[in-house]
Amino acid sequence: MTTEELIGLRRSQPWREELRSTLKNKERMMRPRAVMPELDPVYRSTTINEEVNQGLSLEAARAEATRCLDCPQPTCMGGCPVGIHIPTFIKQIEVGEILDAATTLRETSSLPAVCGRVCPQEKQCESRCIYTKMNKPAVAIGFLERFAADYEREQGALKVPEMLPHNGVKVAVIGSGPAGLSFAGDMAKLGYDVTVFEALHEIGGVLKYGIPEFRLPNRIVDSEINLLEEMGVKFETNTIVGRTITYDDLHAAGYRGLFVGSGAGLPNFMNIPGENLVGVMSSNEYLTRVNLMHASQSDSDTPVFKGKHVAVVGGGNTAMDSVRTAKRLGAERAMIVYRRSEEEMPARLEEVKHAKEEGVEFLTLHNPIEYMGNDRGRVTAMRLQKMELGEPDASGRRRPVAITGAIEEIPVDEVIVSIGVSPNPLIPRTIAGLEVTSKGTIVVNEVNQTALPDVFAGGDIVRGGATVILAMGDGRKAAAAMHEYLSPTS
User: Fold this and answer.
1) Nearest C-alpha neighbor of 326 from the set 212, 447, 466
2) Which pTM does this prediction carry?
3) Are strands 309-313 and 280-282 parallel, antiparallel or unpaired?
4) What is the SS3 string spanning 286-301?
């Protein structure tokens, strides 16, 4: 059965037809979009482990679900990289069948509680909602996804999804980030013997080291990982594929397929004077130390410096995570320094809103050109070139152009550089035969298969830096393709 046929079959069920008749579309469209309850900005900017968004109540979630028009051709699904049956799970919430809604989510998503928190729904599923064509707020699909997944967990009702019989075929996964976990979940459902190899001491990849707990609590990630373990997925930590174990070792151990989801962990820098000063670091280092190594705690063996005047260079979600973390660690002045205008920022609107509420300053149309330090080699100031917007560049955004002579200097004692990342080169260097782009990303075909037919790849190692949900979409696509490749009937 095709996806379109399944959508039609589900929509034509008697309970769905009856539900559509209970409330006219005009009445549904008049209802306001749900508002996410949040912690008070003054309070939350002092606590690093409490989640800002508090989640919808059952009443609020069911009310929001009534806004969905249950379209015969749900364009919202076209914006979801993992193909969640969005109208189905929302209508299940509307009638109060929340656990059924969670089951629907898990048909295609291994991490619904994660995606409901960190995915840019406003640029994906919600951007395709029919309400946007009427200049009305989209149905809060992300809020509802989070609600159903949280309800399932809080009710102690997490359960192993339907799985095919175990087939005894071993497959390996490199990296336990969103791409690897999504791939592992789908392969486990298909009956494979799946082992995930993680270089760090904790499972979760960027979900653990890159995203602060005030946005994505570790307990949420751990819950999803525990369910994968119940599905039979095995995890090996402190294992560096290419060093601890090789591609040939995996073959010798009987693994017939390999998925590479090793991410993009190499930070980019601007190569300007003063970048080697003490106090200038990448957002990767900063967030990993705080999130994964607990370096903000007083008893940490490797404590992180807690700057009082902190500048974060960049305008993406990672930059927002970094500056909001700095604020929570006691920064008196926490600043975003971004060379374009706020309209060009790639960060989610919600992240920008939260940062502003928490007292973060935005120095847009400013670009660092030099960091200065004291006689001990510690950063003390930064020189900023003021910019203006010119013609659009290849990205479609207006190109920032320096304003001649417009340079200012501001005091800083910590600078966090968040201008993008590059792929980890270890796997491409140690697995002969992989094709690699000039940017270091692995070349894959339309189903995420590499030049080596038994090796598939996805996520940042292919994309060079993208969202959690796009990485998960890669994992799902690769799992379906690997299953076809390994199937005796293929």
Assistant:
1) 212
2) 0.92
3) unpaired
4) HHHHHHCCCCCCCCCC
Distance separating alpha carbons of residues 151 and 201, to the nearest angstrom: 29
Helix ranges restricted to H, 253-316? 283-291
Closest CA to 443 of 458, 431, 454: 458
Q: Measured between alpha carbons, how far is 109 from 472 in angstroms, rounded to an integer?
A: 8
Query: CA–CA separation, 292 vs 300, rounded Å?
Result: 11
What whole-number distance in Å separates Cα of residue 350 and Cα of residue 50? 17
Helix axes 58-65, 141-154, angle to 10 degrees: 140
Determine the Cα–Cα distance for residues 227 and 158; give it in Å rounded to an integer: 7
In sequence order, the 6+-apart residues with CB closer than 8 A to the CB of 282 are 267, 269, 416, 417, 418
Give the closest residue to 284 by CA, choosing from 120, 142, 460. Answer: 460
The amino acid at 438: S
Cβ atoms of residues 262 and 174 within 8 Å: yes
Tokens 């799992």 -> residue? 479
CA distance 58 to 147: 8
Contact 207, 218 (CB under 8 A): no
pLDDT at 490: 45
Question: For the segment 104-147, what is each residue's pLDDT rounded down to a tens digit?
Answer: 999 999 899 999 999 999 999 999 999 999 999 999 999 999 99
Output the DSSP codes for 55-118. Answer: ---HHHHHHHHTT----SS-GGGGG-TT---HHHHHHHHHTT-HHHHHHHHHHH-S-HHHHHHH
- What would the DSSP string read from start to end of 1-58? --HHHHHHHHHTSHHHHHHHHHS-HHHHHHSPPP---B--HHHHTT-SSS-SB----H
What pairing do the DSSP bridges indicate for beta strands 414-417 and 193-197? unpaired
Find where tokens 């298909």 sit.
Answer: 190
- Decide: residue 148, CB within 10 A, 0-12 exposed, 13-18 middle, 19+ buried: buried
Residue 93 in contact with residue 65, Cβ under 8 Å?
yes
**Total Cβ atoms within 10 A of residue 281:** 21
Nearest-angstrom CA–CA distance, 269 and 253: 40
Nearest alpha-carbon partner for 260 in 471, 38, 41: 471
Long-range own/partner contacts, residues 137-141 (CB < 8 A, 24 or more apart): 137/32, 137/33, 138/33, 139/33, 139/64, 139/67, 139/68, 139/76, 139/90, 140/33, 140/34, 140/36, 140/64, 141/76, 141/86, 141/90
- DSSP secondary structure string for all residues of 340-359: S-GGG--S-HHHHHHHHHTT
Q: Nearest to residue 359, comparing CAs of 383, 324, 398?
A: 324
Rounded Cα distance between 154 and 159, Å, is 12
Query: Would you say the C-alpha torsion 64, 69, 72, 78 has a positive or negative sign?
Result: negative
Q: What is the mean pLDDT of residues 417-441?
A: 90
Region of residue 101 (phi > 0: left; psi between -120 and 50: alpha; otherwise: beta): alpha
| Cβ atoms < 10 Å from Cβ of 188 | 26
Work out the average pLDDT over 359-366: 97
